Amino acid sequence: MAKAKVIVFDLFETILHDIKFDFNSGLLYLHENILSKDTDKVEFLHYASTYWKGLYDKRSEDNSELAFEDELLDFKNKYGFKVNSSVEEILFNCAIEMNATELFNDTISTLEQLNLLGIPIYLLSNSIFKRNEMKKFINQYDLEKYFVNIHFSADYKLRKPHKDLFKVVFDDIKKADTTVEKGQVYFVGDNFEADVLGAESFGFTPVFINRKHNSDTNKKNFIEIKSLSELLEIIK
């Protein structure tokens, strides 16, 4: 096993606890605050839950990603907006409405220790929101400063475990250090298929963060940790 030269983190349930994800809360925010006053609530929610849900469901077939921005612009064309807020501001507010989050207790201490060790760290996460909105989202917790760069699937129309999304972050890593080999990049994530198997398929060294202590998931005996603090013991 190669020694870790770079660490790449997943976001949700890896460094940020997603207490609750509720897509409908974002839609209700739009109806109540953004869409034209004459927009029928029932018709709007039905349209979102049929046409757009069908598009989202197709993502699992080819690991493509659909940005919520596309859905919002469709709503704007179909229903109109009653406010002059920027699309970026509306998207950020939707992200806040949909996600109830908090930092894990060991997130900041682990990121700070990795920075002190001089190990470059990156972020690669599946998200229907693009970098501009997610940058604001993670900076609720002042997180961006710890990463060399941050990447989100919505910007590339691909989602993990698609190999080309892992290639995005590896190409970024190589810009800073051409000597880094794939196996020296440790990818830390909680989703076994998307993060662990996806990272292995690309050639990264996967680290499965198993906060839920599931005993029947890691059949291939990949590196497994129960908390981020354990990562420091492994890379040392």
UniProtKB/TrEMBL annotation:
Keyword Glycosyltransferase part of the UniProt annotation: no
Domain of life: Bacteria
SUPFAM superfamilies according to UniProt: HAD-like
Pfam families for the chain: Hydrolase
Keyword Isomerase: no
Gene3D superfamilies reported in the protein's UniProt record: HAD superfamily/HAD-like (3.40.50.1000)
Keywords: Hydrolase, Magnesium, Metal-binding
Name of the protein in question: FMN phosphatase YigB (HAD superfamily)
Lineage of origin: Bacteria, Bacillati, Bacillota, Clostridia, Eubacteriales
